[in-house]
């Protein structure tokens, strides 16, 4: 049914678990519509049979019978109208679901049957038919639900007034006036925006393009197959391929053209109509000058010409605005379609393709490249419009000046190769610049993902240098490109002047009888001004085409990338009794890489509990990925039966509530939900959280500890009630007693998943005796398979491994195959409750209601990403009941959610923002630009006044003298104008590149120095938006906008000066027109600015969600939620479209109002010329009216550019905002640097040390006083939330002291710079993070160490064999996030880093949790030998790793509970004893 409707048939969340139940559109259009029809057709045979034998005679045709029959026929017509409407949608590029054809057909035939039955009953003498009454009753009942749905939809929506507007309102865009007034009165908010029209919604638009693209892909595949086999290609395929003979890959451009072809044709028709009208006014000007020249002509002629000029200008305005509205609305749909297609592709892209297209690059495709298509759309019609305008202009010029215009045409033709060469060069620069931009965004994305690691290792300068290096290359190309643009501008400004000069020069030179009078000169100037528009637009068209062709290639390349093969895993046919089978399976991550897994033969019976074990890098996680279909299958078969739930090794958490993370799109079943939370030990966490399960989880789960994230991920799987559970080492991130609880309650033979098939990757040997099957992997192959006793009895490598690493107490029980357990269930429950309740006080306690909320949140959350199991304390997204008091509401609002909503600034952009940009450009540069523009305008006016005087000379004596002098001065003024324009463009270029550099530099330097708390509370998408979209605006949009604003401002000023000088009477209308213009400008700018800001705000969530989706794509696919995530993305894009559409409408509304002012200027200039005909020369009238004809465009552009500047300068405001955020302490304090070789001994002392997340909160660590002697090995343990990780973060000054101090070798760490401190400490963090660079760079970004040192470190960290087996060796490229290495291997790389630094103090933050026991043992041995003389502080999950340490520190609720040697602590039988007992060590 879902396939028939193209949407879900049933949705419990919509119909059952809601306060306002409704049925899905699919249910309403299918079952609900069909129910009465089924009833009538089912009852028909019996009814007809009954009536055959029970005839009551004949009834005369009454009025009631006629009315019934007419009603039936009308309903039948309505059904057929529905059907034809669906066909209409299909013909016009839509893609209605099959249900929209089936239902009208079924209902229509049934209505016809009912109508015929009415007459049949009459003929059989039936007064009232029971069958028909029931049928009509069912029809009414079944229609109530859709009727109610439509009412609810209409109430929920804020429909666009355009839909209900009348003809004149649509024509003049008056329907927008209400929003313009609202925007002027108060800043617009999201709820003020209109709903999108049905056909403009993402779902419909994306579907159309996707269909065209898929059809093209299939056609290309068929074509390739036919060509390779030597067959003839079918005519239809050839047509679809656009007549191309041998396509290498399908053309995305062709798919776009197929989808939007009708829109393109309509827009071309509108533009052609406007172009034809633009040539009417020069002809009317010619008549007006003739009228002025002829004193005997009747005055009404003049008034008629002035009126016709106004009418023609208004028609031109209305058609042009309709054209722009249509084009920009379609351009929006085009961008929306491209974003949707890219998103859908990103969900199915293969892993090898993902290496080529990292997140940053794909975000760029969605932001910059899709935007380029939208920017091109209005220029695209120029392909037809420009030649048409040039041909018409040439025709009328020929009529006016004869063959002399060929000289001008020749000049234009000669300039084409020059501009072609410039355009080609610009294209090359553009492509290269995009590569640098991609690299920069990709690197920034990685920096933001691994910022904590950079801070802990003090690596910021190295990455800062990398980003700045890429940025310099980017700016170098930007500068070159801008210089070429300046040359292009110079040629285009000079072209009309030179063409006019050449044409008029040749005209007066070839024949002495050719006299240049006002009519010839100014009609020609008007025609050349019309010609100037297409010639000026041509470079923009070429530039846009160049940029878009680069973007097209990038998008096409991405869309043509390999996809995961959905047939890789067989889901329908499987050997009976088995849930998973792999036969001779060989798998690789990419075709160009050697196989990761080979010759696998695995069979997993239904309901079995299977463990997958083996050393680091042996392919355990790869096996899980192969079962999910995430790897490329080289040979063999994989069969998986039933639905799948997947828990990845690194939990993937969404930025939504905890409940939404667990439900993951499924309907809420309270009992099942409670059971899942209870089994995953999350209930106690919920009691601790102020918002319970409505607590908002930050991006990437930053406000949960590693263990909590893993348990939420596990609860998601448990709630899904799937058939097969793939669990990739979920127990490594949790404490040992929590792992025990989860195994017993969830995974084990008596857990909630008992009876389900479970495949568990694990390093924990204590659970192995309870497994049904154990699969032992080694080097990508299965080395042993069997039950626990079987493997132990074989005395193979697995048995030897067990004997070496199983705890002594377990060995006996292992042999007996009994299960080690806690002393009692009550004891276990007590541990879990104590574990959670030892966390800090609820955030809402003792909290003042109003207090610089944002700063508090940043400080409070500064360490949430690493505070240990259950440590982070998120803030709820409160759902308030109506009975709650206003104070509670205010408190909840003040506390807010964890991730602060991105605020849209209100009101006018402050002048300080413009001043900031001017300073960034350089004040001398700004002054130079302000001087050069008036000068070039003065030169242009001078040239035209000179021309006017020249034509008047002809009036005096009907011939002209000094032709050469006249031409010489005109040429000099024209060339001077061109030179000044070029100088202004070059100056602006230099300034804008300087501004781009300094603003990016300030942003980058500030972000690198921002405290960790900033990154914990700010989504990376929001920061990336600053580095991608906003920097793009500063780089490439602001300078051209300023250029066009200055041009249009000085052109408008010049026009007014010329008209007032020619006809002083014009000053009378200047004031009212000026007031109307300013009023429109005020209404427009206030509304437009806020719409632009709302668009900016609604854009960030698109990229944040996309980033999140790409990261968790394997989880999304495993749970089969791709469709739902597409719908979420569509909803976010639609929200963005709403503000975009309103902004487009505002521009059109403005266009009509402002061009009305311009048309009035034309009218009054002509009218006053007619009134003052006796005192005016034709030359002055020509000058005045020809200038007036230009003002319509310049006035419109001036407001548009002012608004665009204000909208785009918001990018400077946003970048500045993030360039001034609070920074951490200085990296280096010059007057207080530690002595060389510090710390020599490695003594660490905490003196009365206390720390809190932020002022007003409870202390996390309270009066800690302890001394660790140099060379001591100290283990740090404690229940969840005891402050273990906080302590290490304080050591690195990620958290700053509230009171007290930390001293290392008797030096107060607060007195020295952060880098002097952090570079002398070494940490192996909990989450191993690698960057997409060579392995060498990941180990030694500064290049401080020799190759021998690096190989030695790799050898000690057991990575030597892996690295030496790689062809690239140390230059082996790690993918983004180190995804081409297993988690264990990544942890070993972190160990290698520590071995290289060899500092006196080493901190291990649960560093070996993701590593098997054997490797863990190696690491512990390395730490004992290589760091023998160093001070080692270890936060441990596995207590066996710290049992031989000098001392163990037990923390409880932020204070020291116990601190002594392990033996003494066990003897004391305190907290540590209890933990050791749980782990089987005491």
How many E-type strands? 19
Which residue ranges are poorly predicted, with pLDDT under 50 across at least 5 consecutive positions?
A: 242-247, 807-897
**N→C terminal distance:** 61 Å
Strand content: 5-15%
> Structural class of the helix and strand makeup?
alpha/beta
**Helicity range of the residues?**
55-70%
What is the arithmetic mean of pLDDT? 79
Topology of helices and strands:
Layout: H1 2-5, H2 12-15, H3 25-53, H4 63-91, H5 99-123, H6 130-156, H7 167-172, H8 177-185, H9 202-229, H10 235-240, H11 252-278, H12 280-293, H13 299-346, H14 351-356, H15 359-380, H16 382-401, H17 405-449, H18 451-457, H19 460-510, H20 518-559, E1 578-588, E2 597-605, E3 609-613, H21 620-628, E4 632-640, E5 644-647, H22 658-663, H23 670-679, H24 683-688, H25 706-720, E6 724-728, H26 736-747, E7 757-761, E8 773-778, E9 781-786, H27 788-794, H28 797-805, H29 808-816, H30 825-837, H31 853-860, H32 886-895, H33 911-921, H34 923-957, H35 963-1008, H36 1012-1017, H37 1020-1062, H38 1067-1111, H39 1113-1118, H40 1122-1171, H41 1178-1219, E10 1244-1252, E11 1259-1268, E12 1273-1278, H42 1284-1291, E13 1299-1304, E14 1307-1308, H43 1314-1318, E15 1321-1324, H44 1335-1339, H45 1347-1356, H46 1360-1365, H47 1383-1397, E16 1401-1405, H48 1413-1426, E17 1431-1435, E18 1447-1452, E19 1455-1460, H49 1462-1468, H50 1471-1478
Parallel strand pairs: 3-7, 3-8, 5-6, 6-7, 12-17, 12-18, 15-16, 16-17
Antiparallel strand pairs: 1-2, 1-4, 8-9, 10-11, 10-13, 13-14, 18-19
Helix pairs in contact: 3-5, 3-6, 4-5, 8-38, 9-11, 9-13, 11-13, 11-16, 12-13, 12-20, 12-41, 13-15, 13-40, 15-17, 15-20, 15-38, 16-20, 17-19, 17-20, 17-37, 19-20, 19-35, 20-41, 23-25, 27-28, 33-35, 33-41, 34-35, 34-37, 34-41, 35-37, 35-41, 37-38, 37-41, 38-40, 38-41, 40-41, 45-47, 49-50
């Amino acid at each position: 049914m879902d396939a028939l409707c193209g949407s879900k048939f049933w949705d419990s969340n919509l119909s059952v678990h809601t306060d306002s139940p409704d049925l899905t559109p699919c249910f309403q259009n299918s079952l609900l519509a069909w129910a009465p029809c089924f009833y009538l057709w089912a009852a028909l045979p019996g009814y007809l049979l009954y009536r055959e034998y029970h005839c009551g005679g004949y009834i005369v045709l009454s009025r009631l019978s006629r009315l019934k029959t007419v009603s039936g026929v009308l309903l039948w017509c309505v059904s057929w109208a529905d059907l034809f409407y669906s066909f209409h949608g299909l013909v016009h590029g839509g893609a209605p679901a099959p249900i929209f054809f089936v239902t009208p057909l079924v209902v229509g035939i049934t209505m016809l049957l009912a109508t015929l039955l009415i007459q049949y009953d009459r003929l059989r003498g039936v007064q009232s038919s029971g069958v028909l009454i029931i049928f009509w009753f069912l029809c009414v009942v079944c229609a109530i639900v859709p009727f109610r749905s439509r009412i609810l939809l209409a109430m929920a929506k804020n429909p666009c007034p355009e839909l209900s507007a009348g003809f004149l309102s649509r024509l003049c865009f008056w329907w927008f006036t209400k929003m313009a007034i609202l925007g002027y009165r108060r800043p617009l908010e999201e709820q003020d925006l209109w709903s999108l029209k049905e056909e403009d919604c993402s779902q419909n638009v994306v579907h159309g393009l996707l269909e065209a693209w898929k059809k093209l892909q299939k056609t290309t595949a068929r074509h390739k197959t036919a060509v390779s086999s030597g067959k003839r290609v079918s005519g239809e395929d050839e047509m679809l391929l656009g007549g191309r003979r041998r396509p290498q890959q399908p053309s995305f451009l062709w798919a776009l053209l197929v989808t939007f072809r009708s829109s393109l044709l309509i827009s071309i028709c509108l533009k052609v109509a406007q172009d034809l009208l633009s040539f009417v006014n020069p002809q009317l000007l010619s008549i007006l000058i003739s009228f002025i020249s002829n004193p005997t002509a009747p005055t009404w002629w003049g008034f008629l010409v002035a009126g016709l000029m106004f009418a023609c200008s208004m028609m031109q305005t209305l058609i042009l605005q309709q054209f722009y509205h249509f084009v920009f609305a379609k351009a929006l749909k085009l961008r929306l379609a491209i974003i949707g297609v890219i998103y859908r592709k990103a969900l199915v892209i293969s892993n090898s393709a993902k290496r080529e297209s990292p997140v940053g690059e794909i975000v760029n495709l969605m932001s910059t490249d899709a935007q380029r298509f939208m920017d091109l759309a209005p220029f695209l019609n120029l392909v037809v419009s420009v030649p048409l305008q040039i041909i018409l202009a040439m025709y009328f010029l020929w009529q006016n000046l004869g063959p002399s215009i060929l000289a001008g045409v020749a000049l234009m033709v000669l300039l084409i190769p020059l501009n072609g060469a410039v355009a080609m060069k610009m294209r090359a620069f553009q492509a290269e610049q995009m590569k640098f931009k991609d690299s920069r965004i990709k690197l920034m994305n990685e920096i933001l993902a691994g910022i904590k690691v950079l801070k802990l290792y003090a690596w910021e300068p190295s990455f800062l240098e990398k980003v700045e290096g890429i940025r310099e290359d980017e700016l170098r190309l930007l500068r070159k490109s801008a210089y070429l643009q300046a040359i292009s501008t110079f040629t285009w400004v000079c072209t009309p002047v030179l063409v006019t000069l050449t044409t008029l020069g040749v005209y007066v030179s070839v024949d002495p009888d050719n006299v240049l009078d006002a009519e010839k000169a100014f009609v020609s100037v008007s025609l050349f001004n019309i010609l100037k528009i297409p010639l000026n637009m041509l470079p923009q068209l070429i530039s846009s085409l160049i940029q878009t062709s680069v973007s097209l290639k990038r998008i096409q390349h991405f869309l043509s990338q390999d996809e995961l093969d959905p047939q890789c895993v067989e889901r329908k046919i499987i050997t009976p009794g088995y849930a998973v089978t792999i036969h001779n399976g060989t798998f690789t991550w990419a075709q160009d890489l050697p196989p990761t897994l080979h010759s696998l033969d695995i069979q997993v019976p239904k309901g079995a509990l299977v463990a997958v074990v083996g050393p680091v890098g042996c392919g355990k996680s790869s096996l899980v990925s192969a079962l999910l279909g995430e790897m490329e299958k080289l040979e063999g078969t994989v069969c998986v039966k039933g639905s799948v739930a997947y828990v990845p090794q690194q939990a993937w958490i969404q930025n939504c509530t905890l409940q939404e993370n667990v439900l993951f799109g499924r309907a809420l079943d309270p009992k099942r939900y409670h059971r899942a939370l209870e089994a995953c030990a999350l209930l106690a966490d919920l009691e601790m959280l102020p918002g319970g399960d409505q607590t908002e989880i930050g991006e990437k789960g930053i406000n949960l500890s590693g263990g909590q994230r893993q348990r939420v991920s596990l609860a998601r799987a448990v709630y899904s009630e799937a058939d097969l559970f793939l669990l990739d080492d979920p127990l490594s991130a949790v404490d040992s007693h929590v792992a025990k609880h989860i195994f017993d309650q969830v995974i084990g033979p008596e857990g909630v998943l008992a009876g389900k098939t479970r495949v568990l990757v694990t390093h924990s040997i204590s659970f192995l005796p309870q497994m049904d099957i154990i699969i032992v992997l080694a080097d990508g192959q299965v080395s042993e398979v069997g039950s626990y006793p079987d493997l132990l009895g074989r005395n193979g490598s697995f048995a030897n491994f067990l004997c070496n690493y199983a705890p002594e107490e377990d060995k006996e029980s292992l042999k007996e195959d009994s299960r080690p357990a806690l002393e009692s269930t009550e004891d276990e429950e007590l541990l879990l409750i104590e574990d959670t309740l030892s966390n800090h006080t609820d955030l809402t306690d003792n909290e003042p209601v109003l207090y610089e909320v944002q700063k508090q949140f940043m400080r409070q959350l500064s360490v949430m990403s690493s505070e240990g199991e259950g440590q982070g304390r998120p803030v709820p997204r409160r759902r308030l009941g109506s009975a709650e008091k206003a104070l509670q509401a205010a408190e909840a609002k003040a506390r807010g959610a964890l991730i602060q909503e991105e605020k849209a600034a209100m009101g006018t952009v402050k002048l300080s923002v413009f001043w900031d940009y001017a300073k960034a450009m350089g004040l001398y540069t700004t002054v130079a630009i302000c001087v050069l523009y008036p000068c070039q305008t003065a030169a242009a006016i001078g040239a035209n006044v000179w021309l006017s005087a020249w034509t008047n000379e002809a009036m005096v004596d009907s011939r002209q003298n000094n032709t050469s002098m006249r031409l010489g001065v005109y040429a000099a003024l024209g060339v001077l104008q061109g030179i000044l324009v070029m100088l202004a463009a070059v100056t602006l270029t230099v300034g804008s590149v300087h501004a781009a550099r300094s603003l990016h530099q300030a942003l980058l330097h500030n972000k690198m120095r921002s405290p960790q708390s900033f990154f914990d509370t700010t989504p990376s998408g929001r920061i990336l938006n600053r580095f991608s979209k906003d920097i793009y605006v500063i780089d490439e949009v602001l300078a051209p906008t300023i250029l066009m604003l200055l041009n249009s401002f000085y052109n408008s000023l010049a026009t007014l000066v010329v008209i007032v000088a020619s006809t002083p009477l014009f000053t009378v209308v200047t004031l009212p027109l000026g007031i109307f213009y300013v009023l429109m400008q005020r209404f427009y700018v206030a509304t437009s600015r806020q719409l632009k800001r709302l668009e900016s705000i609604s854009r960030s969530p698109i990229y944040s969600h996309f980033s999140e989706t790409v990261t968790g794509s394997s989880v999304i696919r495993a749970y089969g939620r791709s469709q739902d995530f597409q719908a979420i993305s569509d909803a976010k894009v639609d929200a963005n479209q709403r503000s975009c559409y309103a902004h487009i409408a505002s521009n059109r509304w403005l266009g009509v109002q402002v061009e009305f002012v311009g048309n009035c200027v034309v009218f009054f200039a002509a009218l006053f010329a007619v009134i003052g005909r006796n005192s005016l020369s034709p030359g002055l009238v020509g000058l005045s009216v020809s200038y007036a004809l230009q003002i319509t465009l310049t006035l419109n552009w001036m407001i548009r550019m002012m608004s665009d500047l204000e909208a785009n300068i918001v990018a400077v405001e946003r970048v500045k905002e993030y360039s001034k955020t609070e920074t951490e302490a200085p990296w280096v304090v010059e007057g207080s640097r530690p002595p060389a070789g510090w710390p020599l001994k490695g003594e660490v002392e905490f003196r009365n040390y206390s720390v809190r997340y932020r002022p007003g909160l409870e202390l996390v660590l309270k009066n800690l006083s302890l001394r660790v002697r140099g060379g001591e090995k100290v283990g740090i343990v404690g229940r969840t939330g005891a402050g273990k990780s906080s302590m290490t973060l304080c050591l690195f000054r990620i958290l700053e002291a509230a009171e007290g101090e930390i001293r290392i070798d008797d030096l107060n760490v607060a007195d020295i710079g952060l880098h002097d401190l952090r570079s002398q400490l070494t940490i192996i963090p909990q989450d191993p993070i690698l960057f997409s660079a060579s392995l060498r760079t990941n180990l030694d970004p500064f290049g401080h160490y020799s190759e021998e040192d690096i190989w030695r470190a790799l050898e000690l960290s057991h990575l030597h064999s892996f690295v030496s087996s790689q062809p690239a060796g140390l230059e082996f490229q790690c993918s983004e996030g180190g995804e081409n290495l297993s988690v264990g291997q990544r942890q070993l790389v972190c160990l290698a880093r520590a071995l290289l630094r060899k500092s006196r103090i080493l901190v291990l933050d649960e560093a070996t949790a993701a590593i098997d026991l054997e490797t863990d043992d190696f690491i512990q041995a390395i730490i004992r030998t290589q760091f023998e003389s160093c001070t080692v502080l270890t936060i441990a999950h596995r207590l066996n790793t710290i049992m031989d340490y000098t001392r163990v520190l037990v923390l409880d609720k932020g204070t020291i509970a116990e601190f002594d040697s392990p033996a003494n602590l066990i003897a004391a039988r305190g907290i540590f004893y209890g933990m050791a007992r749980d782990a089987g060590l005491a």
